[in-house]
Amino acid sequence: QGKFTLLRDTRTDGSFLVHHFLSFYLRAGCKVCFVALLQSFSHYNIVAQKLGVSLSAAKERGQLVFLEGLKSCLDLLFGEEEEQSGQPSPLQFISESDSNLKALFDFVRTSLTPTGSDSWKGLVLLVDDLSVLLSLGATPVAVLDFVHYCRVVVCSQLKGNVVVLVHSNVDSEDEENELVVNSLCHHSDLILWVEGLATGFCKDVHGQMKIIRRVSLELAAEQDHVQIYQYKIQDKNVTFFARGLSAAVL
């Protein structure tokens, strides 16, 4: 509890980690606020059903608060967004000259602030994917401020967890995105860095994951713990193995 986990992908798609954490926390009885900016609700629901979780049922019982970013963006751009209970849209910054993300933060805080009848085993904020906010016009400072305030409220005050996915590419010319990624790396308790194979495509090895436990955040003199595994994504799970020890090699 109280941890910030960064999911980072380079030259590959790390969304399988988002699906894992979403189904994992729902099965564990946690309340999840899911800011989904990359895919529709039906997409996440179909994948979750393969993993044995119903997002529709979780929404009905109040365990899952789902922000469908694609739909909200279209509604805002075409003027069809209706203010609910007098509150502005969480993505209101798209239609305003000021790109602060206060409305999005207020949505997260309201969604996860416990009421008297709540009996959830934990609180979780899940964001997929933070890089989209930059594409929608938010500044790097606004995005980093949003993450900072979410960490303060969710991790420190509510003793919950924050899991965020960002795309990164060291060779790209997107300096704003790399600034956000590098800043988040310095503040994360755990980094799961998924990378495509440098040698290209392989049907038996889909990529490698670097697991970085940030021990140096708590103990200044300690080195971070780094483990590297390769993986293969299957229909309903992911197989991990040491580098060079895939079934195809052995």
TrEMBL record:
Source domain of life: Eukaryota
A Gene Ontology BP annotation from the UniProt entry: tRNA wobble uridine modification
UniProt entry tagged with the keyword RNA-binding: no
GO cellular component: cytoplasm; elongator holoenzyme complex; nucleus
Pfam families: ELP6
Pathway(s) the chain acts in: tRNA modification; 5-methoxycarbonylmethyl-2-thiouridine-tRNA biosynthesis
Intracellular or extracellular location(s): Cytoplasm; Nucleus
Record's keyword annotation contains Cytoplasm: yes
Keywords: Cytoplasm, Nucleus, tRNA processing
Similarity comment: family membership: Belongs to the ELP6 family.
Protein name: Elongator complex protein 6
